TrEMBL record:
This is HPr family phosphocarrier protein. InterPro entries: HPr-like, HPr-like_sf. Coiled coil: none annotated. It comes from the Bacteria. SUPFAM superfamilies: HPr-like.
Amino acid sequence: MSNNAAIVELSQTANKFRSSIVLQAENKYIDVKSILGLFTTLLGHHAYELHVHGPDAEEAKAALGAIFAKHSLNVTVVD
């Protein structure tokens, strides 16, 4: 699996939404709309939590959750 492909897909998808979309990795919080932030974070094999808040949060969670699953990333979508 190429993490690069996952990062580009995640960032492009996140940018379609108005909601705040943040990935938590241990004590770090990364804006999923930032490709650079994702590159520096998705290098390890951590467990992540995805926090989405905003007017289109449900759609964003569904879209990003599908990408995480497709790329076998260990991410929990937090309600």
